């Protein structure tokens, strides 16, 4: 009876087993939408452009470029990988650990639920409770026990969104810092700003020699959209449980945002496109790497029942299956005609 009678009156209950696979797309859409509407947010942009975090990132970009001796496009890619390795990669690993712990304690709940059911039946007879009273106490008991398990394993579900607290600020700060470098902000009269802007005009590659202009070939914007879509599809295809209706809706929303990023990327300087593509590429590689059971054990992520034993083989099989479906669809339509 101890579990039932120890139920508290105030409680919180929640279980989140979503990997937040589409953090890349959400962060990209947030920053890009803000950049595209800059004309209507002059005051906001001035404040953000002059902010201390942006100044630090901007100075770091210049330092990386100067000390590495790399052209600007390479320096942008290098800085992106460095920043994400230091900030978002540890947070993503921590998120996976929390998610694995939550899945682990969820396996303990069935036994607790059965015990509470027995205690509820006994208490109903002993105290002459009504069905409604018994149900209320029973639900509170379950939620109390779930809360105890969360506290025991230090895995509150809200911790699973910790990546967003690092990903989005980093994305915004680096995007604004690159925008500052392109437009010689916040002080166009500064010699340092003028030198950086001049170097950006010759620091490109291949079909984009000038990083201060848009990518007229649209190669980078389209690549950005495809990479973001790949992130979503990889996470979708590596789920071992059936997707809920809410997850399906979220995936479709993120797919829409990935497509929306393409025209937005077509309107910004190529320096920003290089950064966005590099950041999304890092995110895709990071997600693929963390599918490996060996890598997960190496970084301290507990083994779970939903973990794939051979993730890359299964992913490849699902890709092939989708490809066959796409190939067969036109043939089916022509046959029906």
From TrEMBL:
GO terms for biological process: mitochondrial respiratory chain complex IV assembly; protein insertion into mitochondrial inner membrane from matrix. The keyword Transmembrane helix applies. It comes from the Eukaryota. It is found in: Membrane. PANTHER family: CYTOCHROME C OXIDASE ASSEMBLY PROTEIN COX18, MITOCHONDRIAL (PTHR12428:SF65), OXA1 (PTHR12428). This is Membrane insertase YidC/Oxa/ALB C-terminal domain-containing protein. Signal peptide: none annotated. It is a multi-pass membrane protein. Keywords: Membrane, Transmembrane, Transmembrane helix. It comes from Drosophila navojoa. One of its GO terms (molecular function) is membrane insertase activity. Its main location: membrane. InterPro entries: YidC/ALB3/OXA1/COX18, YidC/Oxa/ALB_C. It holds the Pfam family 60KD_IMP. Belongs to the OXA1/ALB3/YidC family. Residues 72-289 form the Membrane insertase YidC/Oxa/ALB C-terminal domain. GO terms for cellular component: mitochondrial inner membrane. The chain crosses the membrane at residues 72-94, 161-182, 218-236, 257-278.
């Amino acid at each position: 009876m101890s579990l039932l009678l120890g139920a508290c009156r105030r409680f919180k209950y929640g279980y989140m087993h979503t990997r937040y696979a589409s953090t890349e797309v959400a962060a990209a859409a947030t920053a890009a939408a803000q950049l595209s509407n800059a004309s209507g947010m002059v005051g906001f942009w001035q404040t953000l452009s002059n902010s201390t975090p942006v100044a630090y990132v901007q100075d770091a970009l210049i330092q990386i470029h100067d000390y590495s001796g790399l052209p600007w496009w390479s320096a942008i890619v290098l800085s992106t990988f460095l920043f994400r390795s230091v900030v978002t990669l540890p947070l993503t690993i921590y998120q996976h650990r929390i998610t694995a712990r939550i899945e682990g304690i969820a396996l303990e709940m069935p036994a607790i639920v059965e015990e509470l059911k027995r205690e509820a039946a006994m208490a109903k007879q002993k105290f002459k409770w009504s069905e409604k009273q018994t149900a209320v106490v029973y639900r509170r008991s379950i939620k109390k026990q779930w809360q105890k398990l969360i506290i025991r394993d230090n895995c509150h579900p809200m911790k699973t969104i910790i990546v967003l607290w690092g990903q989005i600020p980093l994305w915004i700060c680096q995007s604004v810092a690159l925008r500052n470098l392109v437009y010689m902000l916040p002080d166009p009269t500064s010699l340092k700003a003028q030198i950086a802007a001049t170097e950006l005009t010759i620091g490109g590659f291949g079909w984009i020699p000038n990083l201060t202009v848009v990518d007229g070939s649209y190669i980078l914007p389209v690549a950005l959209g495809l990479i973001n879509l790949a992130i979503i599809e990889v996470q979708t295809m590596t789920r071992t449980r059936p997707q809920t209706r809410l997850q399906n809706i979220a995936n479709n929303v993120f797919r829409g945002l990935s497509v929306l990023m393409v025209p937005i990327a077509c309107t910004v300087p190529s320096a920003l496109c290089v950064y966005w593509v590099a950041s999304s590429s890092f995110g895709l590689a990071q997600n693929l790497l963390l599918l490996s059971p060996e890598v997960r054990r190496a970084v301290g992520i507990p083994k779970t029942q939903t973990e794939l034993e051979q993730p890359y083989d299964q992913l490849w099989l699902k890709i092939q299956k989708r490809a066959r479906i796409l190939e067969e669809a036109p043939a089916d339509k022509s046959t029906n005609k």
